[in-house]
Design brief:
By secondary structure, this protein is α+β, with helices and mostly antiparallel strands. Helix content is 33%, strand content 33%. It folds into two domains: 35 residues; 171 residues, no CATH class. The strands form two sheets. Strands 3, 4, 5, 7, 8, 9 and 10 form a seven-stranded antiparallel sheet that branches. A three-stranded antiparallel sheet has the order 1-2-6. The protein starts with a helix and ends with a helix. About 4% of the residues have low confidence.
């Protein structure tokens, strides 16, 4: 055995070197993959506290680092048109109830720590706010009663890390009536979508420009 090893020492040394290089390459790939995962922002838009119109829309930061929420947008999709409205700031009536110096009582804009979630409001309140912005309802009736509202899109525009580009995440929620004619809200997809195409980026830039 020893003589065989001596006779094939060069070949064994070459194989050992290749194995070592392969191991180093494998661990380098793991480190690179882990680093990239830490650099990728992940934001979830969910529904909680039931499935009716009084349920709450929740934005959660599942990124490795904090994110900064720049803008929140709600789109109402009816049978005839699409109406888009910013829900970044709270209604005046809501903010007046608990105004403080932190700014959290007047706006939803700001940092969101890793692993933390923000309640952005009940679906019926968010829908009514967007409807009022477009003059779709009168003081005594809601859009849920007067319009053919089919779904709503919730979009979160954020900044993450040193990247100066705005990143967008969106999820659609369907509006349906059950057998008892009660309105129900449910997500159309199982996951939040990341907005990456050119048209989505143009819409995000337009929404951000409207805030300035």
């Amino acid at each position: 055995m020893w003589s065989w090893i001596q006779d094939n020492a060069s070949a064994l040394s070459a194989v050992s070197g290749l194995v070592t290089v392969a191991l180093w390459f494998f661990y380098a790939q793991l480190l690179t993959h882990s680093f990239r995962r830490q650099r990728v922002a992940r934001v979830l838009i969910n529904q909680c506290y039931g499935d009716d119109c009084a349920s709450v829309c929740l934005v959660s930061n599942m990124s490795h680092e904090p994110v900064y929420i720049q803008c929140l947008v709600l789109a109402l999709n009816t049978g005839e048109a699409r109406y888009t409205s910013s829900i970044t700031d709270l209604d005046r009536a809501e903010s007046a109830r608990g105004m403080d110096d932190s700014g959290t009582s007047v706006t939803r804009q700001g940092p969101l720590l890793s692993g933390h979630a923000m309640r952005i409001g009940r679906f019926d309140s968010l829908i009514d706010k967007a409807a009022r912005d477009h003059g779709l309802i009168d003081p005594d009736r809601t859009i849920l009663q007067t319009q053919d509202l089919q779904s709503v899109d919730v979009t979160a525009i954020i900044n993450y890390g040193p990247d100066a580009r705005a990143l967008g995440f969106a999820r659609r929620f369907l509006i349906r009536r059950d057998d008892n004619e009660a309105l129900r809200v449910r997500p159309e997809t199982v996951a939040t979508s990341r907005l990456t195409n050119r048209r989505s980026r143009q819409r995000m830039q337009y929404w951000l420009a409207q805030m300035t």
